Amino acid sequence: ADSVSYQLWPKEMVQDAYYIDGKADMNKLLGTVVRYPITAGQPVTQGALVSPGDRGFLAAALGPGMRAVTIPVSQKTGVGGFVFPGDHVDLVLTQSVRAAGSPETQKAAETILRNVRVLATDQSTESETVDGKTVVRAFRTVTLEVTPKIAEKIAVAQTIGTISLSLRSLADNQAEMDQAIASGTVKVPAGATREQVEKLQG
Q1: pLDDT in tens, 78-96
Q2: What is the distance of C-alpha 109 from the center of its chain?
Q3: Closest CA to 58 of 120, 129, 100
Q4: Nearest by Cα to 70 from 135, 161, 138, 165
Q5: HEC letters along 147-160
Q6: Do residues 138 and 75 touch, judged by C-beta distance below 8 A?
Q7: What's the rounded mean pLDDT across residues 47-76?
Q8: Helix (H) / strand (E) containing 97
Q9: d(CA 62, CA 172)
C-alpha cells in the first residue's frame, strides 16, 4: 500500500489508462506486480500492472535472475494443503540408502533447500478466500522461486527420492536475519533504511 499514492496531475495530460482518484479502487492494485520498472512519481498505467491469475503474472513476479520450478506433492508431502502462494518452505529429500557392506537399504531424509518462496500451488498464484477466511485445499503441484543452479539441484533430487515441503514460520526470516547481523555474517551499512535491510535479507 505504501508503494502507490494519488498526486495532482495537469488535467490536459491525464490519460484514459491512468488510475484516477474517485474512479479507481486502490485496493485492487494491492498484490499486483509491474511489467517493467516505474520511476518514482511516474503515473502508473493500467497496462503496467499484472494481477494474480493474469497471463504473465508469474514471469513478472519472479525476481531478476530467478527461475520458477514446479514439483509434484501429495497431501502427505505438501503440509496437508496448508501452504499458500507467498509462503516460504524448506525442501526435504527422502531417499533409500545402502550402508557399505550391507545388503539392506534404509530410508534417510535431509533438508536440501531452505527458505524457498512459493509462487503458486497447482496453477493458482493467489489464495482463495470465502467469507473472509482462507480456504485450505489439496494441491498436486507447487511452483517455487529458485536460482538456476538450485533448479538443477531440484531436478536431480526428484529422480533419486521424494521431496516433501516443510512450512516455515513467518517470523523465521527476521529471526535468521537478526542472528546473521549479530554474528557478523551479514554487514549492515550505518544508517541503512528498513528497505535496504530487507534487501540484504533476500
Answers
A1: 777 788 888 899 999 999 8
A2: 25
A3: 120
A4: 165
A5: CHHHHHHHHHHHHH
A6: yes
A7: 81
A8: strand 88-98
A9: 22
